[in-house]
Amino acid sequence: MKYFSTNRHLAGGYIPTHTFSEALLMGIAPDAGLFMPETLPHFSAEQLQTMRGKTYAQIATEVLFPFVEGQMSKDDLAAIAADAYGFDIPLENIDKNFWVARLDQGATASFKDFAARFMARATRYFLPAQQKLTVLVATSGDTGSAIGAAFQGIEGVKVYILYPQREVSFVQEQQLIRIGGNVQALAIDGKFDDCQNIVKQAFADKELTSLNLSSANSINVGRVLPQAVYYFYLWQKLTEHTDEAINFVVPSGNLGNSLGAELARRMGLPVERLVIATNANRAVPDFLKNGIYKKISPSVAAVSNAMNVGNPSNLARYFELYGGTLDKDGYTHQAPDIAQMREHLLSVAISDTETVETIKYFYKKYACVLEPHGAVGAAAYRKFQDKLAARKTILLETAHPAKFPEIVMQELGFAPPVPKALQAFLQNPAHKIELANEYKALKNILLA
Ligand SMILES: *Cc1c(COP(=O)(O)O)cnc(C)c1O
């Protein structure tokens, strides 16, 4: 399998293709495009049938092998998957044809654990012996803890997580500062954008070349591909017939999660409708409605804070799959087939008021506890109920309600119980370094 850049059609676009390990370790193509696999494997009805009853790790091995074939043996991939995925996905029946899948049983209690744990192990596998790697992550919350926990204890790798000191929630900060070992939390006296700028300066600094910096960025193929796996897993858990198509509702920000469903469908998984649910950052629903893409800048601060994305990076990959080209600044060079997109994709923006009302409604009506991101999806489900009702529908709950105790307490009057994985994690000693909002401060730490 080779990987190309989504910008290859642009003037000065980057034509050469790369192997999986190159795309993984480079993160982003030299022309700032996103790496895409040249072809997608196709799973026949019989192959889908053989996935029934398999463990998550076994299904991950089947789905991901074609993407690493030639560079990693199937046995090595199976070992990585078994090591990465020891937790389940609870599937709660809510109503006649409607289920909630909780992707919150990993070490840091958000769906980002699925991608981060695979990526960390694949990185270790492909990192040449003796070579050291320094991972820098700027985070507004969930990404930093998922990446930090996934790389914890991995030899040869040091991780620095930069987060805005006053802009993460209490639980989110506890998760960042209690990983320890080779993972160092850096509390920046600034905003999320400042953290991102500091990280960018580090990547541009030639004096740091010897540190071998890597970004573990959310658009890395090593993070996107494993997000196709849980759609296969959930489908075989819920369906009885090989040709039974189901719908998925995905709370979305940067569109990496929903892209996993789009890729799964193109690999032969019977997915009927894919609902992309956003908060007030409504660039995607507006695009599907008007056919013209306009990014939202600056992004809007909504209660579902991990989805506060005004110009979703992975939209460039959707454009590519539907025959278009979109650059990182949100400029359309070639329009995709919008009619075809509308056939498969539904999208709607949900306000903060609707989000908190949905948390209350789902608890009252179904005794189902949602956090703000899942509630955005649940509200979107209700809006499209007519279009979805003929099939089984699964809503992905992307984080554990215990990550957002303040809002759950405010809406439901109780604090959600903290899951075991998170409890264990919160027992670790806390350690953070507070840093001034300037690049020099980070550089001193890195060179120390
Ligand atoms: C990151 C995140 C999202 C958004 O996922 P994308 O892949 O960026 O669309 C949704 N919910 C939670 C809890 C997240 O952490």
- Any guess at the CATH architecture of one domain? 3-Layer(aba) Sandwich
What is the count of β-strands? Answer: 15
CATH topology of one domain: Rossmann fold
Mean pLDDT: 94
- Given this structure, which CATH class of one domain is correct? Alpha Beta
Q: How large is the radius of gyration? A: 21 Å
- Largest sheet entry: 6 strands, mixed
Q: Can you give the helix content as a percent range?
A: 40-55%
User: Segments where pLDDT lies below 50 for 5+ residues?
Assistant: none
Structural class: alpha/beta
**Percent of residues in beta strands:** 15-25%
Number of helices, counting only DSSP H or I runs of 4 residues or more: 20
What molecules are bound to this protein? Answer: pyridoxal-5'-phosphate
**How is the largest sheet built, in terms of strand order?**
3-4-14-9-10-13
